[in-house]
Design brief:
With about 80 residues, the chain is mainly beta. It is built from one helix and four strands. Strand 3 and strand 4 form a beta hairpin. The two termini are about 30 Å apart.
Amino acid sequence: MKNQQKCPKCASTDIVAGVELNAGGANAVHLEVCRKQLGGLVQPIEARSKATAYICCQCGFVEVYADTPSQFRSANR
């Protein structure tokens, strides 16, 4: 939906673009990479990005994109 401005589920073009996800208050939702270590401990890795949503007003389908996806490349290695 981000590039075509068309819903992949219902083909509607009634799309609201660039909606910032919000956890309530002033805190925006962030995507974060976490990696499990030995013993089951979860350690966050410093790779974060704000997230932006695209919403189909016809069927309600939502796509979420990281605003800075390149942040995750090094964290995934």
